[in-house]
Amino acid sequence: MLSLHARIRDPRLLPLADKVLAGERLSFDDGLLLYATADLTGVGAMAHQVRLQKHGRATYYVKSRRLSYTNVCYTHCQFCAFQAKPGDPRAYALSAEDIIQELEKPENTGVRELHMTSGHNPKLKIDYFEDLFGKIKARFPEIHLKVFTMIEMDYYARISGLSTDAFLDRCMAAGLESCPGGGAEIFDEALREQICIGKKDAQVWLDTAALCHRKGLPTNCTMLYGHIEEAHHRVDHLLRLRALQDQSHAAGFAGFLAYIPLAYQNEENELSATHVIHETTGTQDLREIAVARLLLDNIPHIKAYWVMISPGLAQAGLSYGADDLDGTVIAEEIAHLAGAKSPQGLPQRDLVRLIEEAGFQALERDNLYNVYTPA
Ligand code: V47
């Protein structure tokens, strides 16, 4: 097999390859170079090297049901096609009974994770969430509850008149087990003001994630890319995640389990109505996965999110640093309402085929990356 150095064509990447092989951390400027170079396969080769060191050929997926308990949202994110303002005929909020009825449908048999992110609906307070989590866990104790972006958590704690700490204690006692990585968007303050005016700032997202970690609640993290941001915004975002993960690890907590680059879906939203923004391309998507694997040296799992970049490209992403295809992702709405062309869910057999045909080992996992052995 060719050595790593032999697979790199841009000589500027060679010192980075040295660092990768020595297990040394990459810098902000290294990150800029990873975005600037035309040598995508060189970047991919470095990311793949790290992926093989950390995970070998193991590739994870989970049987996941997506669900949003409400689409009513008082925050104004220009990139979002999901939100409904009160009075909108599409506006809804689901009860625990509605969600249980949904989960009882045959297509949800075997689901191991309920992943819920939603709008910011001022009518829903702590008692709603206690009722929701308590009833869902009572009916489906085997389903892991992964709920709230950091921004949702901050919002619902505030309108419940509680500190985030107290809100979290009550949600965890009712059954909350981990949190998805959404709501991070892009941390740069000026850019955030342009794509999600009025949304809580980066520090709120980071502080809330830090609090979750300190309470032993694992979370994921994301970055929304492919809109009006530039490479330096992305490097800044990734390094802020890395710094927080350092802190959480130093304090003895697992912190972020996975990072997911979210490719901007450019339909039916205000951002695309006011800017010319093209769909992300294959090289952009593969580079995001690879750069994440290289810069986020302390976050164990990198997902190739097939919903936003297509199953075929996510499969290629497994050779560019990703070790996780997310999962079956039944009934996803946020990306699909914004124009995602991927299927509304992939059967387990298709995920396994994607992974195995790319030469990797398919492992069904739970939310904490425990692997299920086939019966
Ligand atoms: O918070 C909204 C983003 C997030 C668009 O933790 C958009 O395992 C692209 O958080 N184009 C929800 N993205 C999705 C999410 C997620 C996805 C997969 C795995 C995990 C995980 C989390 O989607 C939102 C927002 O950041 N989003 N609109 C859009 N037009």
Offer a concise description of the structure.
43% of the residues lie in helices and 11% in strands. It has 375 residues and is α/β, with parallel strands linked by helices.
Q: Key features?
A:
3-stranded parallel β-sheet, 375 residues, binds ligand V47, alpha/beta, 16 helices
Would you kindly provide a written description of the structure presented here, covering whatever features stand out?
The radius of gyration is 20 Å and the shape is globular. The chain is an alpha/beta fold and 375 residues long. It contains 16 helices and nine strands. It has one domain (57-364): TIM Barrel, CATH 3.20.20.70. Helix 5 runs parallel beside helix 7 (164-174) and helix 9 packs parallel to helix 10 (231-250). The strands form three sheets. The protein has a three-stranded parallel sheet, covered by helices on one side. Strands 2-3-4 form a three-stranded parallel sheet, with no helix packed on it.
**What string gives the helices and strands in order?**
HHHEEHEHEHHHHEHEHHEHHEHHE
Number of helices: 16
Strand content: 5-15%
> Strand order of the main beta sheet, please?
8-1-9
Taking pLDDT < 50 over at least 5 consecutive residues as the criterion, the unreliable ranges are: none
Topology diagram in text:
Blueprint: H1 14-22, H2 28-36, H3 40-55, E1 58-62, E2 64-67, H4 96-103, E3 113-116, H5 126-139, E4 144-147, H6 150-159, H7 164-174, H8 189-195, H9 202-214, E5 219-225, H10 231-250, E6 256-263, H11 270-274, H12 282-295, E7 301-302, H13 306-309, H14 311-317, E8 324-327, H15 334-337, H16 348-357, E9 361-364
Parallel strand pairs: 1-8, 1-9, 2-3, 3-4, 5-6, 6-7
Helix pairs in contact: 2-10, 3-12, 4-5, 5-7, 6-7, 6-9, 9-10, 12-14
The site of ligand V47 has 25 residues, from strand 5, strand 6 and helix 15.
